[in-house]
Amino acid sequence: FDMSINGRMQVDSMTNVSGSSSVANATGANTTNQLADGAGIRRARIGVEGSYYKDFGYKFEYDFARGNGSVASGITDAYVSWKGYDPLNIKVGQFKEPFSLEEATSNRYLTFIERNNVVNAFSDNDNAYKVGLGVGYSQPRWTANLALQTESVGSGGASSSTSSVNTMGNANRNNGSGDTGWGVTGRVTGLPWYEDKTKFLHVGLSGSERQINNNFAANGSLSTGGISFGNQLNTNVDRTFILNTGNLTTGQTRMAQRIARFGGETALVYGPFSAQAEYIQANVSGRGYNDEALNGWYGYTSYFLTGESRAYKTSTGAWDRIKPKQNFNTHGGWGAWEIAAGYDYLNLVDGNINGGRATTGKVGLNWYPNSHIRLMANFIHALNIDTKGMAARSAAYNSSNFDVVEMRAQVDW
Amino acid sequence: FDMSINGRMQVDSMTNVSGSSSVANATGANTTNQLADGAGIRRARIGVEGSYYKDFGYKFEYDFARGNGSVASGITDAYVSWKGYDPLNIKVGQFKEPFSLEEATSNRYLTFIERNNVVNAFSDNDNAYKVGLGVGYSQPRWTANLALQTESVGSGGASSSTSSVNTMGNANRNNGSGDTGWGVTGRVTGLPWYEDKTKFLHVGLSGSERQINNNFAANGSLSTGGISFGNQLNTNVDRTFILNTGNLTTGQTRMAQRIARFGGETALVYGPFSAQAEYIQANVSGRGYNDEALNGWYGYTSYFLTGESRAYKTSTGAWDRIKPKQNFNTHGGWGAWEIAAGYDYLNLVDGNINGGRATTGKVGLNWYPNSHIRLMANFIHALNIDTKGMAARSAAYNSSNFDVVEMRAQVDW
Amino acid sequence: FDMSINGRMQVDSMTNVSGSSSVANATGANTTNQLADGAGIRRARIGVEGSYYKDFGYKFEYDFARGNGSVASGITDAYVSWKGYDPLNIKVGQFKEPFSLEEATSNRYLTFIERNNVVNAFSDNDNAYKVGLGVGYSQPRWTANLALQTESVGSGGASSSTSSVNTMGNANRNNGSGDTGWGVTGRVTGLPWYEDKTKFLHVGLSGSERQINNNFAANGSLSTGGISFGNQLNTNVDRTFILNTGNLTTGQTRMAQRIARFGGETALVYGPFSAQAEYIQANVSGRGYNDEALNGWYGYTSYFLTGESRAYKTSTGAWDRIKPKQNFNTHGGWGAWEIAAGYDYLNLVDGNINGGRATTGKVGLNWYPNSHIRLMANFIHALNIDTKGMAARSAAYNSSNFDVVEMRAQVDW
Predict the structure, then answer these.
(1) Which residues of C touch B179 (CB under 8 A)?
(2) Which of A291, B170, B343, B349 could pair with C40 as two cysteines, CB 3.0-4.6 Å apart?
């Protein structure tokens, strides 16, 4: 019987450094459209994990900085696992859907402060932690994961903007709130080229088919359910959704019933240099829809000035903890220093859907004094925002080229 | 000085397997009356307990899956204890009221997924964890517990349906919210026949007298307070109250002022076989009431196919952890297997109160791979639901014979 | 790498023992103005702290009894620290503003159950835990702390009454909620006379300048922000704000823009005897204000009947844990016993501000069975409450001399 306590904290600040001219002024009873400056706790998690008789394990983790709308929505991982036929692994409970390299990577090991827009919009914002059954298998050169999952515990999640409509989590489905939606999601990854831990090529594919809960009153009006896709363009302290499809279910004649998602991912590590790219597409079908396709991609490179390589965990097919060659101290150690630059594109416009389009460019500087502390600085520049015809707040950002500076202090234990 | 961390997780699913014909259709702006299918985290608790200089102890436990309406309502146990004259034990803080065998038993050791309806309606749903002062005494063959308690911390609890009216917990009673209600509750148990740990007879009696907080505005209209009894017929993911008295205080002419509760309990263990039954009655008095009596009972039997006996803790007079004779593993161990069948009856109709009546039958299968993991499956069949004259959602279930399948994966540490 | 778990619990009760004649009756749809009786959990905290390679540290603490309005508002400490040039200490994250002796003292070591009114009104009620950057320095005979801080995480805090208007915490500043307010706060303390640990004189000064977030809609109406000062006169289970300025920002013509605070503190320990006093003033400036000055002070003495001395921590310039000379047990040990008496005055009236004035007197009895358990009893007597011209609930207390008995059981680990 072993049990251990773990946790993490991320303290973030965000400053809107663009002149106020690039975003349209608010009118009437509306407040400013400018992104707010501020500081806050992005994540504050405590977790417990352990095992019984080798084969059985469990993990529970809570994020005290989440939970808008419901206490339970701060729950991230909450599952029981069994690995009697190792490396086969079975999980029951709430865990992350197996989709996308950047989503599979712990937020402690992300290169930039926030996940790229396309990953954020199509997996993270809807709360990637969902309740269900998962099966995983891993070999030194490849992994495969498949999950049958329903919805997230609690309503919304920390990542939801107030404009999210995915508000009926599955904590208690009382009084005619409808059956949970459910879906099947899978991801396979491989290392077609692998010299050693510092020189390799990663590739992967993800796929998901999701049934949406649309719950109508007896008279046909929409009661709960539906789904929306939104995005806050790499921002975090002020997470205003600039791109936003709104609820794709508005009534019985326009109703999103199934979402199919596909993703392709690749990453290269070559000594201190690394590069990573993903493409994700989400197809909407249902009444009033013609298989509309929303999509996006991102690419970025990073370089360790101090010679480290990005760390990769073969059992998860995702990034792992960086250990500096030399820890920082007052006697001459500098820790690890990493620079990064990236570009991403997100398109939420097709057919009957107008959620806007945007591209952003960004540069980042990461300092790892030691393996458990990290300080990060990001500069985000918005490019080519197209939000014509959208609701007032989103429309105000049309053609805006706003600039944001973000900083983070992170510790985990 | 010792301190330890403990916790539990229960992952539940529920499927409504009856044809849709047995429940009346919704009308107008109402959503379906059918119970929803879904999966969720039923309980996710982390606790800390410890002691100082042998005599002083403390326990704090939080349920991250509770807390509708208030963060503090996730608190379960939160008390300081003293046992300087062991086996006398004194507690100050929030702890469970000493009432009923099934309520006194940890939800980790229940035979079925949910507590029986009568225990649920008269003790658990109103949040059995309340703030006050408790005194306990135990001997090898008997126990006695007495508690003077006010109300639960926070508003409502995880077990409350949205129809609960017991919404003024005692976290902060600002701005004329009235004095807390309070009550005295006691339970005595004994073992009149005790051969050994696998052959004995348990009996017990509980009693409680409770003063209800009814808080009126200066003009006489009800402001906060009152009490309701409701029940969700053994369901958990969808906890819609099918039986429901509504608030027993509706104004100055109909006002529940005191609730007296009585309970009798018995249980028999004879090797792998066990049987258990309880009767509980709640009498309502106050303006506009004539000592109306609500009541119910349940009985069930269980049998361990693998030869274990139900475990009993003499210091609490309640059930304890099952340790399989052989743990499950991939080399031939099967763990412990238990089958159970039960029946229960709940009557919330008398005099001026119409909260409905129902009986349910159920069968269960429990698998204990080891002492800390349990998988459960229950089949619930509703019988003789009588909700004539009640509000629309309850009335829709009148004469329904719905069937529900529930499953649970449980771990504790 | 070290990590430890800590926590505390405080179980409180409050009884209004004054005759009902001294507070004006409610009228119409209002509920009683009398303070409510009740019991509850005042604080229930679990924390994690640890360090990496000596120089880096972290602390996270959550209060499960806080969190009205938002889960995140239960977060108290959440910071990463560095002390590479010890005794210089740098913190990033959420931590208490360095202001006032009584605020700097852990609530576990307060002499009375609640902080004195002036400390409560000018520091604690607005949530003294704020996100920012702090620098501290300490020597055996003096300490200095300086912090640049924004706002608290989440909305409001446990200490807020519902009348608090400081509701825009900095968890997510979406949709035009405005930049965070921010401020600079500092405190210096010294020991001009120090014989030994039981005989010394402490003095200190605090100062703070704070920019208030006032967020207006495009049409000029107030949207979010502003600040209020309120106080509940040493009560805790019922924390009704009797004194209350209301939001000092009501529109564009009356807008609090800066709050300057000053405080002076002193304390004397002479064997079992101790005395402590503080004066705090808050000056309001902005449109429609003429540097209005609100202020207050308190003084109290305490005496250990069992001979202990109040414990002082030189590195924080604040009070520390009491260790009884002899622990309580059933073989003749009595623990430590302390008696205390105090007086305090709070004035929230000046120029355009009418938040009322009050003085209270109080006596207390503390029993420390051992170093980690404490039982407390306080008697509070309100004197000279002047709330003329204020809103109905506050005005009802004008000239009231109400009496309250409070009790607490406390444990920490």
Answers:
(1) 36-38
(2) B170
Q: Count helices and strands (H / E) in chain B.
A: 3, 22
Specify the pLDDT at position C88: 96
For residues B291-324, one letter each, b for 16 or more C-beta atoms within 10 angstroms of the residue's C-beta and e for the rest, the string is ebebbbbbbbebebeeebbbebbbebbbbbebeb
The residue in chain C having the minimum alpha-carbon distance to the alpha carbon of residue B55 is: C329
* Min Cα–Cα distance to chain C from A99, Å: 26
Q: Look at A217 and B33 and tell me if their CB atoms are within 8 Å.
A: no
Token pair 């792998």 in the structure block, residue: B272
Q: Do residue B41 and residue A175 have CB atoms under 8 angstroms apart?
A: no
Q: Which chains touch C (3 or more CB pairs under 8 A)?
A: A, B
Q: Is residue B398 predicted with pLDDT exceeding 70?
A: yes
- The chain B residue lying nearest A132, using CA atoms, is B39
Residues above pLDDT 90, as percent of chain A: 76
* pLDDT band at residue B161 under the 50/70/90 scheme: very low
Specify the amino acid at residue C109. Y
C-alpha to C-alpha distance for A341 and A363, rounded to whole angstroms: 4
Is the per-residue pLDDT at B172 higher than 60?
Answer: yes
In chain A the domains, ranked by start, together with CATH numbers, are 2-412 (2.40.160.10)
Could you please report the per-residue DSSP string of B318-357?
EE-----SS---TTS---EEEEEEEEEEEEEEETTEEEEE
CB within 8 Å of A240: residues ≥ 6 apart = A35, A161, A232, A393, C174, C175, C176
Distance from CA of B241 to the nearest CA of A (A): 8
Query: Distance between CA A296 and CA A12 in Å, rounded?
Result: 26
Name the residue in chain A with its Cα closest to that of B394.
A175
Of B66, B327, B329, the CB nearest to A71: B66
**Residues 166-225 in C contacting B (C-alpha not used; CB under 8 Å):** none
Higher pLDDT, C45 or B167: C45
Q: Which of B53, B84, B94 lies nearest to residue C41, judging by beta carbons?
A: B94
pLDDT at A158 over 90: no
- Interface test mutation site (partner A, options C2, C70, C71, max chain A beta carbons within 10 A): C71
The beta-carbon neighbor of C329 closest among B84, B93, B216 is B84
Greater pLDDT, A249 or C71? A249
Mean per-residue pLDDT, B6-21: 89
Chain C contact probe: residue of B49, B76, B174, B215 with most C CBs at under 10 A: B174
Cβ-contact C198, C225 below 8 angstroms: no
**Can you tell me the mean pLDDT for B186-199?**
98
The mean per-residue pLDDT over the stretch A194-201 comes to: 97
- What are the residue ranges in chain C where pLDDT is below 70? 20-21, 67-69, 155-171
Query: What is the Cα–Cα distance from C165 to C159, expressed in whole angstroms?
Result: 12
CA dihedral B145, B149, B155, B161 (to 10 degrees): 50
Looking at residue C19, what is its pLDDT? 72
Nearest CA in chain C to B129: C40
Q: What is the pLDDT of residue C169?
A: 55
* pLDDT for residue B68: 60
Q: Smallest CA–CA separation between C36 and chain B, in Å?
A: 5
The interface residues of chain C toward chain A in range 338-397, judged by CB-CB distance below 8 A, are none
What does the block give as tokens for B165? 């009216």
pLDDT (tens digit, 9 = 90+) per residue, A253-270?
A: 999 999 999 999 999 999
pLDDT at A170 (0 to 100): 57
Interface of B with A in 57-116 (CB under 8 A): 64-68, 71, 73-74
> Taking 60 as the threshold, does the pLDDT of residue B165 lie above it?
no
Instruction: Write down the pLDDT at residue B21.
Output: 66
Residues 6+ apart with CB under 8 A from C49: C3, C4, C6, C57, C58, C59, C60
